[in-house]
Design a protein that fits this description.
Layout: E1 7-8, H1 59-63, E2 72-76, E3 97-98, E4 107-108, H2 120-129, E5 146-150, H3 161-166, E6 174-177, E7 179-180, H4 191-203, E8 211-215, E9 221-223, E10 231-233, E11 247-253, E12 271-274, E13 285-288, E14 319-323, H5 326-343, H6 349-359, E15 369-370, E16 384-385, E17 388-389, E18 395-396, H7 407-416, E19 426-429, E20 434-436, E21 441-443, E22 451-457, E23 462-474, E24 480-485, E25 491-495, E26 511-514, E27 524-532, E28 539-552
Parallel strand pairs: 2-5, 2-6, 6-8, 8-11, 11-12
Antiparallel strand pairs: 1-7, 3-4, 9-10, 13-14, 15-16, 17-18, 19-28, 20-28, 21-28, 22-27, 23-26, 23-28, 24-25, 24-27
């Protein structure tokens, strides 16, 4: 992992709320604009209105007074305005935050923004856990959860490996990571970070594990590798941290329920939820901003009346209506998980993932295929799949994961787990025991036939995630697609052809992850297919290995 390229993930640039009886948000003047909480077709200062019904479906949970009490959400970000009128009551002022302007061990009571540009964490925190029912602003998804902050991405902080490792630690239930790397080069996860995260999911929360929530990225369209003006298609699998099976990688949805225009797709997505669009066309997200009209996204120098304090609803510029990105989707997911953990504090990290997958709402796109927006593919080649249904009955799509978070259904299942838990088996990893090495298989040029390699697996696990490593020689791996087919016949496209890796030669040690085989059996033949989707350059497949993560029964 190249620490220098880690960055925050925010593009950032109305009907009356109908559930007035809800104590969480009844008195909050801006909750009427929170379309992700209850979508009644609000415009939220945008040209186009939201599409009614595309929301979190959390009204039943709130009516039952499930608000995220006693759940701790860490915002791993650039700082947090803990004095904010809509955040202060959920900030406990214990020695639980991390301020990386201090000497090791960095522990602090609070970690407010340092640089003038440290605006991101305050917006993220508001979506997860802004105080509800306090007559200020809007409400977080978990309006009574506790907030803590790690500011390792402040523009006044020099990122180091020590801080990168340290930000994942601490006594919190959920870590929200609305950041990542630019997705135009393949990146492996740092091995020390990988080891640390594996330790934390095994030991924290009394052995139930920290819940790590990670943005998928805003690189659906990203600068092609090696260029400064041409855009290519990114992939969430090109961020090494996103290939760890211990994270809940979250894609963003717009107010119409579709995948947001910027949201990075990938077979490593777990779930999707609301991140909005840019605010001037389709609604963005309304959330907390740094206090006052001289700092933050909303300030007197802004162009829109709400943002610059000219609106009676935001005279102090304490809120922004233009926050967006998978930076928004991640804290919406974190708040949703906080409601699940209040309903059942004994859920472990695997059970949280199971419930999210089991209860997700499948929307948009039927089965079939999606064409590349720029290039013609080889005859009969499927560049991207719409919804697939795997052999265990789970629907999956690379732009949505298992679908949209359904909070009421997830909270209900979380409660049911108290008396009716699902046996996920003993957590097991096969640690790359299955491999085909020493290959010398030519990859056909511009052909849907591709080249295949098959591994017969005898270890019997119920799949929770599958990672692959491929070694291949090719002068431009952006031309290549990587597909994996399970013994049950389910196909997952891990890397789409004609992507952002332009001019990069050879697959070497990179790891890619897919969740498409969730709950299938590992036993049988697993087949890798490599397809070259551009004419003139040829290559060779030399190695293929698999790591299975799942439950042994």
């Amino acid at each position: 992992m190249n620490l220098a390229v880690i960055s925050l993930i925010c593009s950032c640039s109305v009907s009356k709320f109908e559930s007035a009886s809800l104590s969480s948000g009844a008195n909050d003047p801006l909750i009427k604009y929170a379309w992700h909480i209850q979508n009644t077709g609000q415009k939220v200062f945008a040209e186009d209105a939201a599409v009614t019904g595309n929301d979190l479906n959390l009204i039943t949970a709130w009516t039952q007074k499930v608000y995220g009490r006693n759940v701790w959400i860490q915002i791993s970000d650039d700082g947090l305005d803990d004095t904010h009128e809509d955040l202060n009551a959920n900030f406990p002022y214990l020695n639980s935050s991390k301020n990386y302007a201090l000497a090791s061990p960095f522990t602090a009571i609070k970690s407010p923004p340092i640089a003038s540009t440290d605006n991101h964490g305050t917006g993220v925190a508001g979506l997860a856990a802004a105080v509800g029912g306090n007559k200020f602003g809007s409400s977080g998804v978990a309006p009574k959860a506790h907030l803590t902050i790690a500011n390792f991405l402040s523009d006044s902080i020099t990122i180091s490996t020590a801080k990168y490792l340290d930000q994942a630690t601490g006594d919190f239930d959920i870590s929200n990571m609305s950041w990542g790397t630019t997705q135009n080069s393949p990146a492996d996860v740092d091995t020390s970070y990988l080891a640390q995260v594996k330790s934390l999911i095994a030991t924290k929360r009394s052995g139930k594990g920290t819940i790590f929530v990670k943005s998928s990225g805003n690189d659906y369209a990203v600068l092609c590798n090696g260029t400064t003006s041409s855009y290519c298609l990114g992939n969430s699998n090109f961020d090494g941290d996103n290939t760890m099976p211990y994270f809940i990688v979250v894609g963003a949805l717009s107010a119409s329920g579709d995948s947001s225009s910027y949201s990075s797709p990938g077979s490593n997505l777990w779930i999707s939820t609301f991140g909005g669009e840019y605010g001037y066309d389709s609604p963005a997200m309304i959330t907390t901003d740094r206090t006052g009209c001289t700092v933050g996204y909303a300030k007197s120098s802004a162009t829109e009346s709400f943002e610059k304090g000219a609106s009676a609803e935001n005279t102090n510029c304490n809120y922004t209506s233009t926050f967006n990105g998978t930076s928004s989707a991640a804290p919406v997911a974190s708040g949703s998980i906080a409601l699940m953990l209040e309903a059942n504090p004994n859920l472990n990290w695997r059970q949280v993932k199971y419930i999210l997958a089991k209860t997700a709402t499948v929307s948009n796109y039927s089965t079939g295929s999606i064409t590349h927006p720029q290039y013609t593919m080889p005859t009969s080649y499927v560049w991207e799949q719409k919804w697939i249904t795997n052999a265990a009955g789970y629907k999956f799509q690379n732009w949505f994961g298992f679908g949209r978070i359904n909070v009421d259904a997830a909270v209900a299942m979380a409660k049911d787990f108290i008396t009716n838990p699902v046996d996920l088996g003993t957590y097991t990893e096969t640690n790359w025991a299955d491999a085909n090495t020493g290959l010398s298989s030519a990859i056909p040029d511009f052909s849907a036939t591709g080249v295949t390699s098959t591994i017969n697996v005898s270890t019997n696990l119920t799949v929770e995630a599958v990672q692959i490593r491929v070694q291949a020689t090719h002068a431009d791996i952006s031309e290549l697609a990587l597909e994996l087919t399970s013994p049950s016949g389910t196909k997952s496209i891990l890397i789409n052809a004609r992507n952002s890796l332009t001019g990069i030669a050879n697959f070497t040690t990179e790891t890619f992850l897919t969740n498409a085989f969730y709950q299938e059996s590992t036993v049988g033949n697993w087949t890798l297919k490599v397809v070259d989707a551009k004419a003139s350059t040829t290559g060779t497949l030399t190695s293929f290995s698999i790591n299975f993560v799942g439950g042994a029964h």
